[in-house]
User: Fold these one by one.
Assistant:
Number 1:
Amino acid sequence: MTRKSFRVAIIGAGASGIAMAVSLQKAAIPFVIFERAADVGGTWRDNTYPGLACDVPSHLYRYSFAPNPDWTHEYSPGAEIHRYFRGVAETRGILERVRFSSEVLRIAYEEAGEWRIETTQGDQGQFNAVILATGILHKPVLPQIEGRDDFAGVSFHSSKWNHDVQLAGKRFGIIGTGSTATQILPAIVDKVAAVSLFQRTPQWIIGVPNNPFPEEKKAAFRENPEKMQSLYEYLNDIFNQRFASALVGENDEGLAEIARLCRENLEKNVHDPELRRRLTPSYQAGCKRLIVSDKFYPAIQRPNAHLVDTPIQRIEAGGVRTKDGKLHELDVIVYATGFDPFAFFRPAEIVGPGGASLNERWKDSCRAYRSVAVPGFPNLFFVGGPNSPIGNFSYLRTAEVQIGFIEQLVAELAAGTYKELEPTQEATDKFNAEITSAMKDTVWVTGGCTSWYYDKQGNVVSWPWTYARFEAGLKHPRLEEFHAR
Ligand code: NAP
């Protein structure tokens, strides 16, 4: 039975916030969702760039509780994924629980089991537990390149695509060679006058085709949902289990196989030896997040596509000047320069008991208890918190594992068994010491690359063990690792 007047605040109505809401709804625990934008969908609402798709297969990148027989492609386009999340929120009655255009500014502890929330709409009152489902890659990073404001053409970050800009006849520059840039280039190359790709570091790319699902296949999924389930389990085994263990040093053969497939893709599909050399990374495949694309190599070899690997000197009114003195004249610059994975709930402010600031505590490095909670901040939980498994896995499954754990804790609070639950410092320190030690054996550290996975203190943002260990560790809360009062 839920305690009278007990209620939970979920921050964010993206993929993880919606799933959290579905879980609380099932447990009959009252909640409100605060969402800064005017629509649900998080990253799939914000990103609308040409070529946007998910690089995790559609039948794995879905909620376990909402299989979808109608995915159009093996790797579905972004707009379709956004519709899927919106559809789940709509059909499950989550939409009406969202307070839209309500960016959370401050979450402040007031008394035992009571947090006050302030949004851009003003004071929202008290909540007994707060769940931060603010996503991992939502704060765009613009590069520190001299003269960025001098550019006379149009420029924007990939996550804020300017659809007023016509492609035809334009000379585009794309800065970056990550998952985003490698999706944009093939989508625009045949529509623009020319496109220059500014590469600081080459990427390993695995060449997987993205086939549409024929109608018969969709009908078969509809008639036999167990077919979708076995496909989900099969893909989960490949991506979240086998691939994930290769990255953390538990499957060397798997890692070697990934490297072999990437090299083969490059050698088979890039014909000019000089271009091939320039596109060959010097680090171990898997060290940076692996790129999945069978379209990038053909696109970079189109006559109007130019790979620029001389470092950038500065940006000028006319375009990008490289260190060899050459000006690459451009009409449009796209910054496909990634996101800050350590932003989490910020710029909101979280003030715990005794005025402790989580913003201050996490200034240089974000550390948590098993990716879901922080000592000193009772009844505050994270979906997708620090050291969640991130990489080429299904984030939705990761979120669901954390949600299952959080829901069990919140149910204890809702039932009135405890007023406050907060992980102990000791359990958190032990967990983080183990993380630091295990991280040394992962490809992110041994692979010889730098990436957005590193924080200012050299800690890696991801999970250093197998995915199975992540699932097992969050199956049930160990209350001995909590202050329960
Ligand atoms: P990213 O992987 O962080 O790549 C940023 C790129 O910008 C890198 O190539 C980086 O070069 C380059 N860069 C940054 N600053 C630069 C500078 N000052 N000068 C020149 N180059 C600079 O960003 P992203 O491609 O947006 O992808 C971010 C993450 O989003 C992905 O890893 C993935 O998790 C997710 N994503 C997923 C999908 C999907 O299909 N699921 C699609 C897009 C994005 P260096 O490598 O040298 O640092």
Number 2:
Amino acid sequence: MTYSRILGTGSYLPERVLTNADLEKIVDTTATWIQERTGIEKRHLVSEGESCCDLAEIASRRALEAAGIQASDLDLILVATTTPDQIFPSTACLLQQRLGVRGCAAFDLQAVCAGFVYAMSVADKFIRTGSARRALVVGAETISRLLDWNDRTTCVLFGDGAGAVVLEASDEPGIVSTHIHADGAYTELLQVPAGVGNGQTGSPYLEMRGNEVFRFAVTTLGRIVDETLEANGMSKSDIDWLIPHQANIRIIQATARKLDIPMDQVVVTVGEHGNTSSASIPLAFDQAVRDGRIQRGETLLMEAFGGGFTWGSVLVRY
Ligand code: COA
């Protein structure tokens, strides 16, 4: 049996920082409201001329360096993004060119905030079936470009960034299991209406009914945790680290309670960068690997929920 093992991680946050105090000058909000309702203290934003691929490239180079391999060793480049630089080529193809390699498969995957768990699931299947031996999986976003900076109910929540992991075929897990789901019946709760079709374009801004999304996310993430443990005959106490999608501290705390896992075993970075959509899990993961919290041999549970709705989990023996 072939599994995927995580060889290395990398991440990058753009230099420009917008604090909650800065937001008080832009919209009718307070730093206290944002902090108390979301746990977010600041977010990093791309500057003019800075692209999603720029963020993806830096995170990817860091992950390749940590993995100790060259880009030319890759068989697959998979970028989870909701904010591609262009409609086409894919950000993955742009990234491949930046990394100076040719020939390996490269494509984007769009599952909004669940994009990284979806991409890990797909890359894992490529490796398990022998279609690839080494894969670069990236979550990269410039969500700030989808925000209406007059809408206080959304603009305070999101930020930009990128994270990446390198996977390699191995005789032992690695990725133990992945679980991904979607329910397309909830478009009106979380969407960017604009698109490419019949010359009709809706609003180019992110729209969200936050309260309803919140409730749905908490319930659904609780279910995905149960599904993942049951599928592997594991119990809550087998999980060493929860690495959740970083959307809102209250959603993260609710999932931790469901797992009976103390908050010091939960990787929380939402305060530093807000909701970076598909970049948030690999950003949090990389930080906890680099600061020495996550150690080889530990069991990690990643989980995410996003527009679509999409949701999923990745169980890893690191
Ligand atoms: N600053 C100050 N007040 C704000 C505000 C802001 N930035 N945004 C909303 N408010 C106000 C509302 O207008 C409302 O006022 P009202 O009571 O006078 O009508 C009040 O705060 C409460 O709004 P509500 O939406 O009920 O707050 P909440 O406790 O649900 O928190 C969110 C709002 C958005 C933080 C929360 O619903 C949330 O995190 N939802 C999930 C979002 C998410 O994670 N989405 C991505 C999933 S991938």
